[in-house]
Amino acid sequence: MAAIRGNLVPSLLLMLMLLSLPSISLAYKPGDIVPMSKMGQYHSSRTVWHDVIGRHCPIFAVNREVLIPIPKPMGYTGADPYKISFQVGREKFLIPWLLVINRKSSEVPTIDVYMRYSGSDLHGVTAKVVDMPHHYVDIHPEIRKQFWDPQHWPKHILVRYTWKEQSEIDVTSGFYVLFGSGLVMSFILSIYVLQSSREKLARFVKEAVAESSMPGGGVEKVE
User: Which H/E stretch holds residue 45?
Assistant: First the structure.
């Protein structure tokens, strides 16, 4: 029994340590490339997830603008809208479908991506499609021309990554971590106490049985 208790407690402590590893493995440093993948939808047909190359991905804690190429979808006729979706980070935060082609606007689309972080952790990603700023079109008139040319593919979409830092003190998350750790430790201590009690009870029963088996119940009579 003592051997079992000796092996069980370290095993449970190791399990508690392993539970904290995912948050460590997902940590970023300023300047790290944040991996991203892309999926397209035209009609009812969707592509598989494709990894976005590094120079088009977000850079952790760095505001930047990139031009992401959009390949021509299979069966494209120009009659229906074309949507794209992204998964961002090793955490795979999902950006829902964004309408980028045939969105009933005469302006070239731009995707604004907002990323929330604290310390070395990415906490969330949101995005929306807006009109490309006119000053950008004035500087790069070829983008407008190529975007509206039905024969020119791939199209290029301006993506602007904007980072917002949050306080590292997250009371709710901290409470859940402490609460979970407390439950695990309570479970470990309960098993330890239970096994100790069983050993003491077994020893008490063994001694009681031994005493009761002695001649005269183990008690000397006094005449």
Answer: strand 45-46
